[in-house]
Design a protein that fits this description.
alpha+beta; N-terminal domain of MutM-like DNA repair proteins; Helicase, Ruva Protein, domain 3; 2 domains; four-stranded antiparallel beta sheet; 8 helices; 10 strands; binds zinc ion
Length: about 280
């Protein structure tokens, strides 16, 4: 699933490529993609001839703000991709389920192999009240992601293993399975440790490495791992996979010991038992 660095990369590219353009046409190839109370027909009527004012990210959601006070939300879920380009470029992808034709003759298209992605249309001033947005925790790239706010957010959890807590979108928004393993490896914290048992020093290291790992991953345009699922809006792979130090690695980059894989709440966790002692 695309996580903060991948969704941030897509959002920045969308801003660069589509800001100021007008939506000329809409096409749906998969009915269930559109969620919420607005029908496909209403969706089309509402957004055709609107201008894209800008695109932002909230957690793993992409929000396209349109003229007339409307916003279009996209969540890529497991295998969603957004592509921007010419008709020929878009046609190369066999899993396109949604297309917007833009005023410069390019397309903004959604591809999704597994069909879990979703689109919502909402009034811009109501976006913050949507369940998906309202319940989001801290944004690690925002100015208010201070150590104090991070600690307060962690304290909302009475119990819970730190790896599992890092995945909870209402605590910190945007971290998924890849970066949770990477952050804890960098912070030298055992993923099985309960949040209430973390020392101040460990919390500080986790906080610092959330920022460090995610900022660096954005810089490298995200991670495309072995499944090759993640691609940016140009169909290019992210370059952070070569920087991964724990996730799906065999040897620890630091101590050369064996990386261990365990399953936590059905998801794989990778860590170094030597560097990340209990
Ligand atoms: Zn190690």
């Amino acid at each position: 699933m695309p996580e903060l660095p991948e969704v941030e990369t897509i959002t920045r590219q969308l801003n660069r490529k589509t800001k100021g353009l007008i939506i000329k046409d809409v096409w749906f190839g998969w009915v269930k993609l559109l969620r919420g109370r607005i029908s496909q027909q209403e969706f089309k009527k509402t957004i055709i001839n609107r201008t894209i004012l800008g695109v932002n990210r909230q957690g793993k959601n992409i929000i396209i703000n349109l003229s007339g006070g409307w916003s279009c939300l996209i969540h890529l879920k497991l295998t969603g991709r957004i592509l921007v380009g010419s008709e020929e470029f878009i046609k190369q992808d066999p899993y396109i389920h949604f297309k917007l034709k833009l005023s410069n003759q390019t397309y903004l298209a959604l591809s999704d192999l597994r069909k879990f992605a979703r689109i919502l249309l909402e009034k811009t001033d109501k976006v913050k009240d949507l369940k998906e947005i309202k319940e989001l925790g801290l944004n690690p790239l925002a100015k208010d992601f201070t150590f104090k706010n991070f600690e307060n957010s962690l304290n909302k959890k009475r119990r819970g293993k730190i790896k599992e807590v890092l995945l909870e979108q209402n605590i910190i928004a945007g971290i998924g399975n890849i970066y949770a393993s990477e952050i804890l490896w960098a912070a030298k914290v055992n993923p099985l440790k309960d949040v209430q048992e973390l020392t101040l020093l460990e919390k500080k290291r986790i906080y610092q490495n959330i920022k460090k790992v995610l900022i660096k991953a954005v810089e490298f345009k995200g991670s495309t791992v072995a499944d090759k699922m993640y691609q940016d809006t140009e169909g290019k792979f992210g370059n952070y996979a070569s920087k991964l130090r724990a996730y799906h690695q065999e040897k620890c980059f630091r101590c050369k010991g064996q990386i261990k894989r365990i399953v936590q709440k059905g998801r794989s966790t990778f860590y170094c038992p030597k560097c990340q002692k209990e």
